[in-house]
Design a protein that fits this description.
By secondary structure, this protein is α+β, with helices and mostly antiparallel strands. The chain has 19 helices and 8 strands.
Length: 468
């Protein structure tokens, strides 16, 4: 079939696949370094307990066959090695069927992790990586022309990411419609970055321009992805520019980077590097791609209907393989930033003058003099869940008390997730959690005190707790 492949996208495919492999590498590395404290055998939400409780059809995973921390580590580090090899271009040096199997194994390994990750893996960028990773299996390698149908499916995925995010905003918080959400967002977002203080202090007129530009790029530009070239490439460039702005203004794991990767797949590579003649695909490959395309189009019905629904759901999966999903973010923007501050004391008997010392997290605000750091695309799962817990105790019901218990035990795997442990010699006798309101300091406060944040005590979140 002459229409099946298009040489013009050889460079776009190469960049997409290698950049996607880099995102996979970060995702597997995040899993390898954090899983023991979060979902390990002695973690806050142990995988073995989850597997006993949830049917296999609802969360298919290779860990159904066997689970141990050693096996999970093997899976995660294997994912790192396979991803790194793909970044280096290994798939283009292999026969087509072997390259496809390589990408499929990578997808299966990460699917297995996500499907047992529970609350810690309940983020939209997990399903986005899985959906993009599944499509990458059928993109082929440099032995054949890039298949047009898969390229269009990648645009359909990018369209749902951007348009879904735009609709959830317009349908949600009134401040998106009156262009004032960014008066608050840079301060109240889950994990500010080193430039967030400066973004927050931009003039209000600039914030209104930010919001208006966001609506244009998320609600109008996605339709242009399906236009002829070079219009589609220009639309992809606008998406990339918007995502880079978000990269500078905060920490959103690999969401922004993966969206950029998807946008690059829509760019006509011949505009940059000219043509690159490649042979056509074998018949068996064409049949497989046609079948997969038909399957994904059928599965797209519910996500498409969700886009049109007044009760639009964001970041929702419709099947346990996460093949076609719904996306969206920040339909509501907080006006006030609340933070949980976790403290411990080594005094056995509590009294009015008891000295409490704070645990410092790697990414979330704590010490008011500490400049927020850049971690994305690396994902600090505990820090993100702490942001949700501050919004409502319901978000922390399943894991927060186990977290406190491990602090009281001095669990090494849990303490590795933190920036500073104030009890390096022995665990504390008591741990408590208090809720504070945080706001960015003004320019004058910053000069006078050296602090990036100002905080005010709100209430007790967890009373002093000790091991029974």
């Amino acid at each position: 079939m002459e229409w099946f492949g298009d040489d013009a996208y050889w460079l776009s495919r190469l960049v997409f696949q290698r950049a996607l492999a880099a995102v996979y590498l970060v995702a597997f590395l995040t899993a390898a370094l954090q899983f023991r404290a979060l979902i390990g055998e002695r973690g806050m939400l142990p995988v073995p307990d989850f597997l006993r409780r949830v049917p296999a059809k609802d969360s298919p995973s290779i860990f159904r066959l066997h689970y141990s921390d050693r096996f999970f580590a093997l899976v995660a580090w294997t994912g790192c090695l396979l991803s790194a090899a793909l970044v280096a271009g290994a798939a283009d040096r292999l026969p087509l069927v072997v390259a496809m199997a390589w990408w499929a194994v990578l997808w299966l390994l990460y699917l297995s992790i996500v499907n047992v990750g529970q609350t810690w893996y309940g983020f939209g960028w997990e399903t986005l990586l899985l959906e993009a990773g599944f499509l990458a299996v059928f993109l082929g390698n440099e032995h054949i022309q890039p298949p047009v149908l898969v390229l269009w499916l990648l645009r359909w995925l990018l369209f749902r990411v951007e348009f879904g995010a735009g609709l959830i905003k317009i349908r949600g918080d009134l401040c998106w419609r009156n262009l004032t959400c960014l008066y608050f967002h840079h301060e109240t977002q889950p994990m500010p970055g080193p430039l967030s203080w400066y973004f927050h202090h931009l003039p209000k007129a600039a914030h209104r321009v930010e919001a208006a530009a966001n609506h244009v790029v998320q609600l109008g530009v996605p339709f242009l992805l399906f236009a002829p070239q070079p219009v589609a490439s220009v639309a992809a460039g606008l998406v990339v520019a918007t995502q880079l702005w978000l990269v500078l203004s905060g920490n959103f794991s690999w969401l922004n980077w993966l969206t950029i990767v998807l946008a690059l797949s829509a760019v006509d590579g011949s505009l940059v590097a000219g043509g690159h003649a490649l042979p056509g695909a074998p018949l068996w490959f064409e049949i497989v791609v046609l079948a997969v395309t038909a399957l994904l189009l059928v599965l797209s019905y519910r996500p498409a209907r969700n886009l049109l629904s007044k009760r639009q759901a964001m970041n929702r999966s419709y099947d346990s393989l996460h093949l076609v999903n719904s996306y969206g973010a920040f339909g509501t923007v907080g006006r006030v930033r609340l933070e949980l501050v976790v403290e411990g004391t080594d005094e056995r008997t509590l009294k009015e003058g008891t000295v409490w010392r704070e645990y410092e997290f790697k990414g979330k605000p704590g010490d008011v003099r500490r400049l927020p750091r850049q971690f994305a695309p690396y994902h600090l799962r505990l820090d993100w869940l702490m942001w949700f817990a501050a919004l409502s105790p319901a978000y922390a019901r399943s894991w927060f008390l186990p977290f406190v218990e491990r602090l009281l035990e001095g669990d090494r795997d849990t303490l590795r997730l933190l920036h500073r442990n104030p009890f390096p010699d022995r665990p504390p006798a008591h741990v408590r959690a208090r809720l504070y309101r945080y706001r960015f300091t003004t320019g004058r406060e910053r000069r006078d005190t050296g602090a990036w944040w100002h905080r005010t005590f709100v209430r007790e979140f967890l009373a002093p707790t000790r091991l029974s």
